[in-house]
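Chapter summary example: a protein plus calcium ion.
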Amino acid sequence: MKNNQFSGSIILLVEDEEALAKGLEYNLTEEGYHVVWAKDGKQALDLVRTKEFDLIILDIMLPYFDGFEVTRLVREKSPEIPILMLTAKTSVDDKIHGLALGADDYMTKPFHLQELLVRVKGMLKRKMWYKKVTTAQPVYRFGDNEINFENLKARSGKQQFQLTTVEAMLLKYLIENKGKIVSRKELLENVWNITSEIETRTVDNFIVRLRKFFEPTQAEPIYFKSIRSAGYMFVGE
Ligand code: CA
């Protein structure tokens, strides 16, 4: 077994292709993770209701409930659990749809095993970082908005909603760097733990979601500003 600081983390693997599932299970176990395999959406939901998991790896095309439906139902009860979605298609729509429902990251099949292991570790690391930084100041207010970083509940005016971990982490990072320009690359490295230049669209999609939540007028953002060719900047009160 390799030296892994997240050794012992419990991963729910939801994948109906048995050969792929077994291969992933083997390699994740080699890394020190404890893997529970669900072969369809129904089994996955039953497991999430009865057990605690540190992370979910979730295929989209599944019997009974597909990955989108599973994400939506998991998010109702567990907003904080990291979800890595596996998409068979390279459809951008699928990715955006998955992220909008609350998946934290996605990979397109076929993927490289090493890449998946890096993503998994990154997501677990993020979860730990998030736990550390939120205990200091759990509630943050700006304008008519309020964010509780502990239970991930947010409010904008009278509208209440639930944030996912990545949304909350992105907010936390932007707020900690209030008044400073942060580049997409910096956000990918610190919030997503990804160093690739290709995934900058991910950042943009998430910023769109934050604006939808917190901006009085989405088209004219006053809090989450775009800085042309540089990145984004959170402007507080
Ligand atoms: Ca499948």
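Key point: Residues 16-17, 59, 61-62 surround calcium ion (CB under 6 Å).
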